[in-house]
Amino acid sequence: LEELKERGEQNGVTGLQVLDREAVLVIEPHVGNQVVAALYAPTGGIVCPFGLTIALAENAAENGVEFVFDAKVNGINRVETGYQVETKKGNYEARLIINAAGVYADEVHNMVSEDEMKITPRKGEYLLYDKKVGDMVSSTLFQLPTALGKGILVTPTVHGNLLTGPTALDIEDKEGLETSKDGLDQVIEKAALSVNDIPGKAVITSFSGLRAHVTKWNKKEGDFIIEEVKDAPGFIDVAGIESPGLTSAPAIGEYVADMVKRLLKPEAKENFKSTRKGIPSMALASDEERQKLISEDPAYANVICRCEMVTEGEILNAIHRTLGATTTDGVKRRTRAGMGRCQSGFCNPKVVEILAREQKV
Q: Which phi and psi angles does 355 have, rounded to 5°?
């Protein structure tokens, strides 16, 4: 803990303290019986990963970035002006390419470089608990990190749930998102070391994600590979972004933007839109704000998702805004319709009906 505290202070993190068990219990009364000390980072925070990602994408689109979906890259060729990218939706020419393809970043890298990269997906399984136990902890509780990462954590979410996980298992399948009994048993067992008596009956869903673990690159393993490829000028890898990838994303963005500035020497965009207006939330709105929304559009009075109190107005906003939702998952990640206790058992048919009506499909 002292070593981590020193590293944090070198990185400019303020307020770090090593607490003994009694001090930990004051902040987190449900902490596990075996906990003897903790490193407290009062400036730490949590964010909604869907909300952050979608907000950044929408803001980029508002500022002129063009998105092409469902267009797998089949090949990349050097041309006089830079690169030609071959996709099933046509070819695109670019002076510069940024490879941020996650678990597929090795395949894209290997299209242009002799220095072979191999990424092995590292699967992490999670359990999500009902909001009724969301206040068991007020901080994100990590165990001491190992070679495989920061281990099983217990954390509140932005929306008031409790989340535990992830495991760390290297697999070959880059689409291998299924969960397993062994993996979820491990989450339950390890989370119990951090927090006492997490109620198993309060679990509302399980899921898994894949981290991009680089197992071969420059004849060694590595992570956070952010550089212009030596034998492919104008091709920037942003590969092997393991934990804490989400936390690091804004800083990585600035770092890569500086690389692009040096290579292309672009002019600053005039009339840059620095803000983006989100979707109104009836669940979080005041009575006054709710009445105003309903008076402007009665669809905000029609509740579609009872668990999360998401209305038809919010779903319509999600569908018709910049880079709007086209699937039930798209609606879910923008509005939380289907993320509650019943896990879309009640609202899914209604969401499908609205999507079909609005998209005329």
A: -60, -45
